[in-house]
Design brief:
Layout: H1 2-15, H2 19-37, H3 44-47, E1 49-53, H4 66-69, H5 80-90, E2 99-103, H6 108-112, H7 125-136, H8 138-151
Antiparallel strand pairs: 1-2
């Protein structure tokens, strides 16, 4: 993780893009990535992904009812409303603060370890595969965030 953080720092210095904007965009991409890689049976696992921005402790709640219980709906990619909910949580994310994406269900770790046949094509697990994808797509993600920020008058 140290090299990735150094790469972000270097990118920010060269482009003069807000490091906070980069952190928020990458965090949103990470959240969407784990959702889309999550196997869906009842939807409970996908609905239980939580985002916490450096408040000292991650969100440890779980939801038993998958339909609308978490920040995402059952079995779907995040809707614009759901993305806005997460984006609002990420408003406080600053470069150097921790953004924690967690799932507190008892079977979250077995799923990360490849327990489900639905995750077999993801070497290293849901979180690890998502992080690798984010590193690979870093430049494109930041360019997209810059365009959106310009449209909102943030740059």
């Amino acid at each position: 993780m140290g090299k990735f953080s150094a790469d972000i720092t270097k990118f920010v210095k060269v482009t003069k893009v807000s490091a906070d904007l980069v952190v928020r965009k990458l965090s949103l991409d990470a959240y969407t990535g784990v959702l889309m890689r999550s196997p869906v049976d009842t939807g409970r696992f996908r609905a239980n992904w939580r985002v916490t921005v450096s408040t000292g402790a991650p969100d440890t709640r779980t939801a038993d009812n998958p339909a609308g219980a978490g920040e995402v709906e059952y079995g779907d990619p995040p809707s614009p409303r759901e993305v806005q909910l997460i984006d609002n949580k990420l408003k406080g994310a600053k470069f150097g603060t921790a953004v924690v994406i967690s799932n507190n269900l008892p079977y979250a770790q077995p799923l990360e370890d490849g327990w489900s046949k639905q995750t077999n094509n993801q070497p290293g697990g849901i979180l690890a595969a998502t992080f690798e994808e984010i590193k690979r797509n870093f430049g494109n993600s930041v360019a997209k965030a810059m365009r959106a920020a310009r449209g909102r008058g943030e740059l």
